[in-house]
């Protein structure tokens, strides 16, 4: 009997086009629709020996892993996936392997950094609103703002945050930054100035978030921080939804206490049809596509196929659960 492989959450229907799945001596089934119900997920996945997961779109807690007795290999795109219980997988004998993150390892930051700037410029120049208006027969409804000469605040000056800061400098912005362990020297390396957390929120014309989600950063941007922001300021989040208190941010936007927000990540994904984000004003919304590019997908899926082939041959795979 052929090994059965499930490829999950292929929203765009492109998984089979980005790697040579035919090289595997296996039966491959692609799931385009996200399965949110845990019982239904388990029912659908029980026959499979191999599961290919796309990032953190589908969680694999202990309860799910324990209900999949046929599972031997779980491949996640990327080398970090907080939604997989790695300890449970190890105890159950499930190998968890990962992939590279982009076509050029030296530029793995590029996709999300570029989308961040797409959101910033879309907010500042009202691009989605003007696009919509012109298609409806209108002409020049809004007045945008230039980013040159304004202050870019970067929350989290890691690899991705540094690249966003560098572009900010190229746009002639004053760049300030804060994170819990940031030093003056690290900020100065990218032409930024380290400030304390409150000043970051008070002084930023554009505040962009680039910190990983952890116990320390969950809810890091809450009602208190949002209250410090200027009514003309914008917030952009391409990190993780729960870094921000989403209810507090929506309230600030509805009440006009900040000028707008560009959001690519959410506490629940995909967004339900009736999710309040869909009707929140002063927003530019994208469906968690910071990493969704041709180059990234080619690496994700090609490495996934390579890991599966190695596993089926009994060769070592790129393991992330030791």
Automatic annotation (TrEMBL):
Check the record and name the PANTHER family matching this protein.
D-ISOMER SPECIFIC 2-HYDROXYACID DEHYDROGENASE FAMILY PROTEIN (AFU_ORTHOLOGUE AFUA_6G10090) (PTHR42789:SF1)
Q: Where is the D-isomer specific 2-hydroxyacid dehydrogenase catalytic domain?
A: 17-317
**Annotated CDD domains:** PGDH_like_1
| SUPFAM superfamilies with a match to the protein in the record | Formate/glycerate dehydrogenase catalytic domain-like, NAD(P)-binding Rossmann-fold domains
Domain D-isomer specific 2-hydroxyacid dehydrogenase NAD-binding: where? 118-290
Q: Which organism is it from?
A: Saccharopolyspora rosea
Q: Into which family does the record put it? A: Belongs to the D-isomer specific 2-hydroxyacid dehydrogenase family.
According to UniProt, the name of this protein is: D-2-hydroxyacid dehydrogenase family protein
**What are the protein's UniProt keywords?**
Amino-acid biosynthesis, NAD, Oxidoreductase
Q: Which PROSITE patterns match?
A: D_2_HYDROXYACID_DH_1, D_2_HYDROXYACID_DH_3
